[in-house]
Amino acid sequence: MLQRTRLGLTFDIDWVPDWCIKLCVDLVRNANYRATIFITHESDILADLRKLDSIELGIHPNLLPGSTHGDGVEDVLNYCLSLVPEARVMRTHALVQSSRLFKTICDEYPQIETDFSLFLPFHYNLAPTICYFGNNGNFLTRIPYNWSDDQILWRPVWDWTAAPSVDSGFNVFAFHPIHVALNSANLDNHTSIMQLLDGRPLLSLRREEVEPFVNHGAGVRTFLESLLTDCDATQSETASQLSRAFNGNVK
């Protein structure tokens, strides 16, 4: 079963305004794809996203020092689950992870069944794994992801016109809506946007402010569009569908 090609399309929203999120969701829906969106903040668009069968909402807890999500693991998780109480999946912001975190989840937040915080760049034939933590016999299904736009933007050389590559097994892509909106080909335009904000929250960023900085060549957005066009939409699954497939609950 694991040799079947499975596509997981994920988005870490990272405090962007609703119009950025909608841009990504519209691209996904127009291509008849399924996707998972990891949530960082309260947003008007959440109510609309919950109505879409093709979209799953997960949490994107920020466990770094000074987090607006709270102090300590429990505070952060409680805050994130107050935003998305139905969440069954998570990816931590900045990929912060520890055995204490996973033990706390298994013991106190067993509704979180799957974690996507493990990044293995370009590691094909991915397969999930089950990890037991804590005192209650509970486990997390951990599914690595193998492509992320921000990691690509740090690479000294990358051909954005190259066709997306998928292999047998799990193929999990991570995008950030701000880079989709900018169609980033490097980090220069994002840096310019942060300078423009000059301390304003990213949530306040207006679409017309971004337009002068949009890359009109090949970049993150055109790569996402190629992925949606070139790969079979019927192979796309939400995070929980990927997890259940691995655990034998669905075929």
Q: Quickly give the CATH architecture.
A: Alpha-Beta Barrel
Report the uncertain regions.
none
Mean pLDDT: 94
Output the structural class: alpha/beta
Task: Give the CA-CA distance, first to last residue.
Answer: 8 Å
User: Which CATH class is shown?
Assistant: Alpha Beta
| Tally of strands | 9
Shape: globular
Sheet with the most strands, sense and barrel status: 5 strands, parallel
Q: Kindly identify the CATH topology.
A: TIM Barrel
Series of H and E elements: EHEHEHEHEEEEHEHHHHH
Q: Report Rg.
A: 18 Å
CATH H-level homologous superfamily name:
Glycoside hydrolase/deacetylase
**Count of folded domains:** 1
Helical region count? 10
Structural write-up:
The protein has ten helices and nine strands. The protein is an alpha/beta fold. It has one domain: Glycoside hydrolase/deacetylase (TIM Barrel, Alpha-Beta Barrel), CATH 3.20.20. Strands 3-2-1-9-8 form a five-stranded parallel sheet, with helices on both faces.
